[in-house]
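Input record (one chain):
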Amino acid sequence: MKVLVTGGAGYIGGHVVLGLKEKGYNVTVVDDLSKGYKTPFYGDKFIKANIQDTKKIKKIIRDNGIEAVFHFAAFIEAGESMKNPAKYFLNNSARTIEFLETIINEGVKFFIFSSTAALYGMPEKIPITEEQKLQPVNPYGESKLIVENVLKWFSSIYDFRYVSLRYFNAAGADEKLRCGERHKPESHLIPLAIQTAWKERDALYIYGTDYNTRDGTCIRDYIHVSDLADAHILALEYLLNNGRSDVFNLGNGKGFTVKEVVDVVKEVTGKDFPVIETNRRPGDPETLVASSDKIKKILGWNPKRTDLKWIVKTANEYYKYWKKIK
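The corresponding structure, as predicted from the sequence alone:
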């Protein structure tokens, strides 16, 4: 089967490309390289393009016989979205809606959407289920919610089905070091801590130590990026087997505090490093932990890399590898 992966040169998209190739899919990647990296690349074809280039997207779909699309081409920095909301609504919402119209008109019937736990905002209860109220607290989350709402309408009106996957905290790297996390700027805790351990940063900042948690710092649910990639392929297979359009959480169902993550990074790297405790950031929920019961039941997803030390170890090994070759 021939599939298109937008943003396939990025962190999560790159891991999904690896998984698709291992399953025998023919993979075309479209990425404008504003955030991603062309090398290393493991698809069948790479095309540098932006999803807003409708004429080019139409040609790509026709020339490559695209039957399904995985969509990762989005900006992901919640903090930046509070400073520049237009950037997020333009790219993540408006351009994605235009892109959806294009692929539907070209006969694509299956769509896997990269969504986010940011849709839940300040959750009403933990663990978070898909039925909970959607109440984003930043433009990033709102930009994804807009698309989820559009997908519901498009799926009810057109011959078109989708799966939306709401990620919690993707982390780690491919065990064979073919792909890993290289965001610029970096904003995720595990790579920030690893960079600090290896003296690329002077110190790691912890934002808020007065939350009602076991050590006063926020709790988050970390999912290995390769487990996350496996879920995307299961989502496509589900749609191909006449599954209805649906949404699923993707997390481990386990919560770790910021301080616990920092301790694990110190243990895995064997290095101590400065940690500076400072004030809370606006809009940071105290606890975000997923219920992934639905995706396990319906798609048969079974995460294999749930140990936090293993997640950090793969991230650290990839960091050392990338520093060596770049």
